[in-house]
Amino acid sequence: MSKDSGWWDNFFPEFRPFFGLVSQRETNNHVRYIMEKLNLKPGKKFLDCPCGIGRVGLPLAKKGIKVTGVDITQSYLDEFGSKAKKSGLSIDLSRADMRRINFNSEFDAAGNLWTSFGYFENESDHQLVLKKMYKALKPGGKFMLHVINRDWIMANYQSHGWQEVAGVKSMEKRYFDYRTSINHGTWYIIKDGREKTFEANIRMYSFHELIAMFEKVGFIDIEGYGSIKNEPISRERMMMFITGARPRRK
Questions:
Q1: Residue 129, Cβ density class (10 Å: 0-12 exposed, 13-18 middle, ≥19 buried)
Q2: Strand, coil or helix: what is 209?
Q3: Residues 46, 107: contact at Cβ < 8 Å?
Q4: What structural domains does the chain harbor?
Q5: What DSSP element (H or E) covers 241?
Q6: Labelling 67: which of 18, 45, 48, 161 has CA 20 to 30 A away?
């Protein structure tokens, strides 16, 4: 196994059906919010990393944003590319680990969306992801991290969960390690009568921890909200939208 391999290699191709739990209306609302917070307008360049199947990147491209998508899951990139082609859109797509991207001052804005953060064993790798996103931005560019809120998780923690979509079922058994703030999940995914088991371990963060990480990288003007209505982050808000800017050159 290479140093860039992990639980995500086998998990995400099987997890694909559960993207269907997010409605198109919710996606559209997120896209509008992202455009507002990142000051995205037609002609601007946006880095979507990881981009998944283009749930956000494709609608942005349809609005005239020049989207570059990066993901580690090839089947997601294939789907994103196929949808873009059918829509007559030109989108740059590449397969890479988010720790290994090497863009330099290329984008007006960037996003790591829908809890695509905290996957790695070493804490330094999470800091590295933020550093890579910062480096990818043009001076004055803005970054958004959209991630689940550890404090909400603690207030609402359940040791197991169950969901079903399009005939595919999943059950997750969870254990939260308070020493590391890592949620250890064992997923059982049942499709066509066959069950597959996966481990998925995600480091959960509180807002104050992410502020410190953003500041360490060099981001300024750091803001955080608990919803697309700009409500404050609290234990009552499941998700966090955190933005920061790369300083303009003096």
A1: buried
A2: helix
A3: yes
A4: 8-148+206-245 (3.40.50.150), 153-200 (no CATH)
A5: strand 239-245
A6: 18
pLDDT at 250 over 80: no
- CB contact set of 195 (below 8 Å; sequence gap of 6+): 188, 189
Contact partners, residue 10, CB within 8 Å, separation at least 6: 198
Partners of residue 194 on adjacent β-strands: 191
Task: Give the bridge partners for 149, in sequence order.
Answer: 205
CA atoms within 13 A on the CB side of 168: 15
Show the tokens assigned to 215: 């500041």
Calculate ∠ Cα 178-179-181, nearest 5°.
55
Contact assessment for residue 67 and residue 42, using Cβ atoms and an 8 Å cutoff: no
- Nearest 5°: phi and psi at 74? -60, -35
- Residue indicated by tokens 């550890």: 150
- Say how many residues make up the chain: 250
Average pLDDT, the chain: 97
Distances (CA, A) of 48 to 58, 81, 107: 10, 14, 10
Q: What is the pLDDT of residue 4?
A: 84
Q: Widest CA span of the chain, in angstroms?
A: 61
Residue 3 has pLDDT above 80, yes or no: no
